[in-house]
Amino acid sequence: IIGQDAVYGCSELRCVTIPSTVTDLGWCAFANCGNLSDAIFLDSKSLLNQEFFDCGFWRAEQELVNQEALGGMLFDEDGDFAFQGCPSLTAVKLSISWAVTVRMTRLPQECKLSVEERIHNLNRLELEDGDVLACFPVVLMNQGDEAEDDSDDDEDDNKFEVRDTNHETARSLHQVLQLIAFHELKESSIMIELAMWKSRIDESTSVAREDCRVAIPDPAKSLIMEYCGFAGFLKPAIEGA
What we know:
LRR_dom_sf, LRR_5, elongated
C-alpha cells in the first residue's frame, strides 16, 4: 500500500511506476505533483476485463477496463483521485505485457517488427522498453452549472474519472491481438504438419516434397483455428466464399 499523501506536492516527480505488489493507493497519494506526466501500473491483469481477452473477439458494448477494480485503486470512498491536482497527467497507463509483450517475444523477428510498427501507428498504445502500455484518459467529470457558479470551488474539488472513452484503447488493442494471432497461426507447427501430411503418406513415391502440399478442407480450417485459440480473432479463408 502506498500511504496517504505519500509524495504530496512533489514538483520534481515526473514519472511514477506502480509495481505489481501495490494493491492500494492512499488518499491523495500523488496529489499536487504538478510535473507528473506518467503513471504506469505494472500489474494490470486485475484492472482489466478478462472477458475481453478470454472470448477472443471484441464487441462495442464490451469494456476493456474493469471499472470497479480500477476505481478502487485510483479513487477513495469520496471519489477523490490519488493523482488530484496533477495537470500534466492526461492518461493512466497499464502494462499489458502478459497479453501482448510475452506473445510478441515468441514471434520471428520480422513478425515482431510488424507488430511493433502497428503499435506505434495506433492511438492509446505505447511501446516503452519492450513493454506494451494501454493508455486510458483522465477525464474531468461534468459538475454541472451549479459548480461553475460556486465561487468557493477550486481545482482541488474537481472530480475525475479514468476510462476508455469511445472504446478507442480497446479497438487499438484488438487490432494488435489480431495481428499477433495472424503471425502465430502462420508460424504454427500444426499448419506445417498438415502441409506435410500428403508427403508422409506418399513416402514410397518419388514426388518432390514441394508438390505434395494439399488444400486444407474448409471444416478443418475452422477446427484448427478453434484448437489454436485464433477463431475469435481471425476468420479462415473459405473456398468459394
